Amino acid sequence: MSYDLIVIGTGPGGYVCAIRAAQLGLKVAVIEKRATFGGTCLNIGCIPSKALLHASELFEEAGHSFADMGIGVGKPKLDLKAMMAFKDKGVDGNVKGVDFLIKKNKITPYRGTGTIVAPGKVEVTAEDGSKQTVEAAAIVIATGSDVARLPGIEIDEKRVVSSTGALTLDKVPGKLIVVGAGVIGLELGSVWRRLGAEVTVVEFLDRILPGMDGEIAKSFQRILEKQGFGFKLGSKVTGIDTSGKTLKVAVEPAAGGAAETLEADVVLVAIGRVPYTEGLGLEALGVEKDKRGRVVTDHYFRTSVPGIFAIGDAIAGPMLAHKAEEEGVAIAELLAGKAGHVDYGIIPGVVYTSPEVSSVGKTEEELKEAGIAYNVGKFPFLANGRAKANNQTDGFVKVLADATTDRVLGVHIIGVEAGELIHECAVLMEFGGSSEDLARTCHAHPTRSEAVKEAAMAVEKRAIHM
Prior knowledge:
Elements: E1 2-8, H1 12-23, E2 28-32, H2 39-44, H3 46-64, H4 80-104, E3 108-111, E4 113-118, E5 121-125, E6 131-141, E7 145-147, E8 160-161, H5 163-166, E9 175-179, H6 183-194, E10 198-203, H7 214-227, E11 230-233, E12 235-241, E13 247-253, E14 260-264, E15 266-269, E16 273-275, H8 282-285, E17 308-310, H9 321-335, E18 349-351, E19 356-361, H10 364-370, E20 374-380, H11 385-389, E21 396-402, E22 408-415, H12 418-430, H13 435-439, H14 450-458
Parallel strand pairs: 1-2, 1-6, 2-3, 6-17, 8-15, 9-10, 9-15, 10-11
Antiparallel strand pairs: 4-5, 5-6, 7-16, 12-13, 13-14, 18-19, 19-22, 20-21, 21-22
């Protein structure tokens, strides 16, 4: 069979790329090795984790906050099996939705592992070992990423788990050690802490949330510590003894020094992700990869081999589903003769803990390093009417604006629904808006979004409620 485009992988980048290309009139096929579409995100990542985050937040709220609001329900009882079924239902609905969209857009699916045997040719190996070859003018690699592993430590997905295993534990661990204080570790650690686990986070660096604004990270760490998180920063896990009933975890200072042993029922290894390109045949074709194993592409997503393109976690940039989606749309439009484009300077990031943390644009550290003069406006949720009424006052909004032009360069938020609040700032920044533009835009009262407006007003030291 011959197509205009073959997409290998149907995660958010792959299936969105395929759908947009089909909308533009291209004949499209997708290759997927899983039984269901959606990749890591829908099956074992973003979607199931958000279901457990939501359910665990309500469980904790019922046990600790309802009484203060005059709601008497007694002590909530955890039915973990039912909670996991709730998670699985959400996953099932999402993957079925993608399946529907693939059919609706007349995209041909091939089940199996794809290997690019030559430019324009992909061999698909089915689970039973049978093979078939499909051809296309363009091939897009959208194979996503895999969990990064610690040398010498085996992940069995039962007691030593990756994010995959952490989403399917059959009981709440008494003690959970999370290796890595990034987004995934903090999100999944917060799920199990709310359900009753004692959580300790071990991080190699001297801070949490590497890459996020430093002030935000420090403030958020204090919030998590109040919630019961323990942190061992500037530390590394050098080994895990799995021979006993409990795990013995060897932890050393990152700079060197005496080791200590921590006990745990479960260890979650969440030190990041690595591009997944195994079995694609890239080495034989001469497709260039960088030192981190990422496929090297130009601004048009072209690899070093004509006719082969790559997007998403397989290439450089933040490993975020929405970044991959934007790239999928862009390459589809470029292949159809249109002007596809991704603005990498304005890609929101969200940590879906409680409260949430969100960010778009530059951090203070990045602006200082670049020698850009800037002004800062901050506003706490403690002074926001809606947040005070709901007793959800943790966190603040921080706006960074160019000192000369007032153009907004970055926004960082800790607070309830921070992941939703960040997007008006992203839209503002896409249009080159200033803090004054944001400050002079009427926001409904009482809403948490008023804190965004007030932070923008605070850039010129004219916040009203602070």
